[in-house]
Amino acid sequence: MRPWNFSAGPSALPLPVLEQAAQEMTDWHGSGLSVMEMSHRGKHFLQIINEAHDDLRELLSVPDDFEILFMQGGATAENAIIPLNLIGRQGLGKADYVLSGIWSEKSCKEARRYGDVAVAGSSGCASVINGLSQAAFTWFPEPAQWQLRDDAAYVHLCSNETIGGVEFVNWPDLNALGAKGVPLVVDASSHILSRPIDFSNVGLVYAGAQKNAGPAGVTLVMIRKDLIGHALPHCPSAFDYANVAASGSMFNTPPTYAIYVMGLVFKWLKQHGGVAAIEQVNIQKANALYNYIDASGFYENRVHPSVRSRMNVPFFLANEALNTTFLAESEQAGLFQLKGHKSVGGMRASIYNAMPLEGVQALVSFMQEFERRHG
Ligand code: PMP
């Protein structure tokens, strides 16, 4: 049996996807070619990329007035590509950022290179939320308290902080918060396709593929069409959304193999009932892990219960001196990559779509057994 892989990303892919890719490695559908060897303009690859676009639209019910783009450079490049494309929209060069952890901080820092960037709200300090004392970046700033500028080109947030384990899904209507017509831009890298997306309140959603959607190398961008075509003059041509959209994500040679494997993940997800069905499994998985952690006293998750991520579960051992032993023994038990991010410490279990309930149950059993021996 393969180990259970709790990596935050690149992360576990569904086994049937890996097996199909292996089977098709040297001869895709009788073409005589590996997908890696095909022209991106040939009929075979066109079929692959078109199906991937269509399947993603179907899986997330992406509205018709949104363009789906497959880009390169990861979410990190999008942190620059977004202001390069959007910040000059009304000629004012302003954007507002909500800070909820390391990834949104990075986005904000990068955007400052391109314009007048303000912090709309931040959880970067300790606070008391519903009677619970929360450390920095273990809660989410309340939208009603965001300081929004009605002449900003967009408001940016990260809806799942992969490192902090904070997930925020009630994306507000910015019109109701006084920022009329200002689009919301969301970094959904680490929970894309784990639950449905309500597109009514957003202008752009982006995500690196290497957690829930496929291998590293391709970035998903879903953008409302009216937001395309406003790039700054110095925006690189390959990163101008207008060029990428007009060329069907083929302004330059796309990451063909990554798109192919991502397309297999989309088909796997469709076979398993789509996003609504996987969401139910994700709820079960997250409940199994959080319920055990909360009840144990030996382990602890410090994120406010209202914004705990279903995908990334950071946890601490009450006795941190046992960390090394925990990691060594968990690996021996076939539970891989549980070490927490260095900025947070402790452990982190990333339980994306490809992790079945069985894998989470194996983790909980190991944690119980470890607690019994060391508690
Ligand atoms: N945003 C989030 C939420 C992430 O988790 C990551 C990667 N872990 C990034 C951005 C950066 O993505 P990439 O490394 O693909 O540029």
From TrEMBL:
Ribonucleoprotein keyword on record: no
SUPFAM superfamilies recorded: PLP-dependent transferases (SSF53383)
Residues bound to L-glutamate: 41
Pathway: Cofactor biosynthesis; pyridoxine 5'-phosphate biosynthesis; pyridoxine 5'-phosphate from D-erythrose 4-phosphate: step 3/5; Amino-acid biosynthesis; L-serine biosynthesis; L-serine from 3-phospho-D-glycerate: step 2/3
Enzyme Commission number: 2.6.1.52
Cofactor(s) the protein requires to work: pyridoxal 5'-phosphate
Residues binding pyridoxal 5'-phosphate: 75-76, 103, 162, 187, 210, 252-253
Catalytic reaction annotation: O-phospho-L-serine + 2-oxoglutarate = 3-phosphooxypyruvate + L-glutamate; 4-(phosphooxy)-L-threonine + 2-oxoglutarate = (R)-3-hydroxy-2-oxo-4-phosphooxybutanoate + L-glutamate
UniProt remark on cofactor binding: Binds 1 pyridoxal phosphate per subunit.
EC class (word): transferase
This protein's name: Phosphoserine aminotransferase
Modified residues (N6-(pyridoxal phosphate)lysine): 211
Protein family per UniProt: Belongs to the class-V pyridoxal-phosphate-dependent aminotransferase family. SerC subfamily.
Subcellular location: Cytoplasm
Keyword set, alphabetical order: Amino-acid biosynthesis, Aminotransferase, Cytoplasm, Pyridoxal phosphate, Pyridoxine biosynthesis, Serine biosynthesis, Transferase
Gene3D superfamilies, alphabetized: Aspartate Aminotransferase, domain 1 (3.90.1150.10), Type I PLP-dependent aspartate aminotransferase-like (Major domain) (3.40.640.10)
Function: Catalyzes the reversible conversion of 3-phosphohydroxypyruvate to phosphoserine and of 3-hydroxy-2-oxo-4-phosphonooxybutanoate to phosphohydroxythreonine.
